[in-house]
Amino acid sequence: MTDQPTPTDGAPPHAVPTHTVVIPSSVSMVSLLGPRDELLRTMERAFPKVEINVRGNEFRMVGAPDDVALIERTIDELLVVIAAGQPLNRDAVERSISMLRNRTAERPADVLTMNIVSNRGRTIRPKTLNQKRYVEAIDKHTVVFGIGPAGTGKTYLAMAKAVAALQAKQVNRIILTRPAVEAGERLGFLPGTLNDKIDPYLRPLYDALHDMVDRDSIPRLMAAGTIEVAPLAYMRGRAQPLDSQVLTPDGFRRFGDLRVGDLVVGSDGRPTPVLGVYPQGVKPVFRVTSEDGASTVCCGEHLWQVTTSTDRRAGTTRVVTTAEIAAALPHMEIGLPVVAPVEFPERDIPTDAYAVGSRLVGQRALGGSGLSGSGVGGAGVGGAGVGGSGVGGSGVGGHGGTLLADISRDYFHNSIAVRTALLQGLLDAGGEPVPAPDATLRVRYAAPNAQARDDVVFLVRSLGGLATVRDTGRADRHVVDLRLPPEIVPFRADGELSAYVPTRVRRPERRVASVVPVGEAETQCIQVGAADSLYVTDDFLVTHNTLNDAFIILDEAQNTSPEQMKMFLTRLGFGSKMVVTGDVTQVDLPGGTMSGLRVVQDILQGIEDVHFSMLTSIDVVRHRLVGEIVDAYGRWDERQPRPGSHDRRPRPVKAPSEAKTRSDVKAQADVNAPSGKER
């Protein structure tokens, strides 16, 4: 690279020198100049007051030193891009010049060579500085908002990062969603099936997905639930039928009767509040049954925290859908969590619980109808409710002739200590420890009738154990095999207690036995406040309501209400990332409905690990006119009167100070251009 005066006779002594840049011989000049010198012409248009000539592998430039230096830096950056194997185009040259003029800390080559994901020979990269910062924010933060006008690559880049995360096994699934409310249309009044109605709203997501994932593998990945594309209303649909049972501190309750603020029982056995109740409509449902006979009904997208043999060795868990469990059976062993001993509120009882249990065995043998009371148990063995209609006759504890529905509630929905004492009374009178095939101990209980069987099953499951009913073929003999956690001692009597060695007691492990379709049902889903998002449903099964190890993208978020935005964000699970994209200038919500995207920045400002990336018209990567159109509408919008809250036209969210509009960059280019003779 040399500076030398132009050897022209009679030239004035102050003639501008020629600056020469020599390109390495290993670089094809066609790759640098473009077909028909298109890229050279792009540089000439950007620097109209600099004379640029190319001879062989040399650039010779005459002009203001600042401009010449900027061109040289541009050439250096373009050479780095070429060396990275990326072909140049007019857009890359223009953006490189723009970034250099704005004196950004990042080099243009760092932006243009930042590979995200490749498919069929095509590599997806950011094209602008703000896009690069947006992509880096997704790497650094758990929740990222990408806000900006159409064409800035918000969703496309987020999807590329999601695919890259899936390929790197950083997540187990990708969920792509957007609200199906655009141009004032309502899904219920559109013709066709559900898929016909929602596909037009989701088509942009499918199209982008096809650019990043092999087309032949997409149906397989979607069928397996690895990639899910759904409207926002259905994304939350990890649903159970309204007639399912959910455990509360007062016992089992109909799922459809839950309201926000109610308490349910979490996996730790403690109460957790219901934060949201979301109707899901009629859905195909499946019965999930475990090896111990516990079962519940839910939709195919319902979530479960499970363990495979690999997970058990690694001490980890994963979250999968009902459909994924069905696909894995019977080839894979799927484990479910077992609820911790449930902490029902302590209640006063008239008689010692152990004595009640002991007497109850004898009473059941004589045909008593049960202690646990009508309707307080839930769906018990074989679908029957746990508990009967109350004890008649002489009663329990000397209360002759008294119906014990209330007392039964007090015994079966009492503290862990009371329920343990009740179970000990039952097992001392009708149970025994027996060795299991794996050399551990379990307990076998011989119940005289179905009600006694169901009472023991309820107690064992409520104490964090498993109870498996064995078919004896006799109505007067029901055998139940029990496994209890080591901290629950099932006997008091000396003989049984001495034979029950705690060191041989294995913690209960529940396995899925089957998943079968059972038709359709009206469903809903709930959101709970528990840190692990687990709650207890039928037969003390522990189920899930959030999304772990997933990369979740909410597109067109300007068309969510604040309530929908909150619902979406609070479904975040462990090991997951969320990216929310939208354009606050294109809200299509009905009049009077506030956009959740417009208020979320004020709500979440200052929360750690939540980041807002602002993109502007300069980041538009569609047709060159799109950026100008975005700016024109922005200027027009600013001129319009603001009559007050009745005007639902949103004010644009302001980008950070360093983000410039396309007009700002053009003005900056005019300032940087030196005065002098134009070519």
Automatic annotation (TrEMBL):
Keywords: ATP-binding, Cytoplasm, Nucleotide-binding. Gene3D superfamilies: Homing endonucleases (3.10.28.10), P-loop containing nucleotide triphosphate hydrolases (3.40.50.300). It comes from the Bacteria. InterPro entries: Hint_dom_sf, Homing_endonucl, P-loop_NTPase, PhoH, PhoH2-like. GO terms for molecular function: ATP binding. Coiled coil: none annotated. It holds the Pfam family PhoH. Residues 124-239, 545-633 form the PhoH-like protein domain. GO terms for cellular component: cytosol. The keyword Cytoplasm applies. It is found in: Cytoplasm. Residues 637-679 are annotated as: Disordered. Belongs to the PhoH family. This is PhoH-like protein. It comes from Nostocoides jenkinsii Ben 74.
